[in-house]
Amino acid sequence: HDLVCMLHDTASKNGTYLNGSKINGPTQLRPGDEIRICNKSYVFCSRIPGPPPPANAAHTRTIAG
To answer: What is the pTM of this model?
Structure first.
């Protein structure tokens, strides 16, 4: 099984950003990805091993997937 988490923007006014780029449709998440919604930033974490979070992750909140 390949476990996949997808990020969706459900017609928000300001958009949803993944690693600094606005998403245009469902987008696959990878551990360490930065998600920005309005003025809040989150780092996607997974129990499946992956790359370390970005260096600026200390200034973000973390959501576990």
So the answer is: 0.67
Largest CA-CA distance found in the chain, in angstroms, rounded: 35
Taking the C-alpha atoms of residue 30 and residue 62, their distance in angstroms, rounded to an integer, is 13
Q: Where is 64: in which H helix or E strand?
A: strand 61-64
Q: What is the β-pairing status of strands 40-45 and 61-64?
A: parallel
Q: Partners of 43 in the beta sheet?
A: 34, 62
pLDDT digits (tens, 9 = 90+) for 7-53: 999 989 999 999 999 999 999 999 999 999 999 999 998 876 655 55
Closest C-alpha among 13, 31, 11, 15 to residue 23: 15
CB 22 within 8 Å of CB 15 = yes
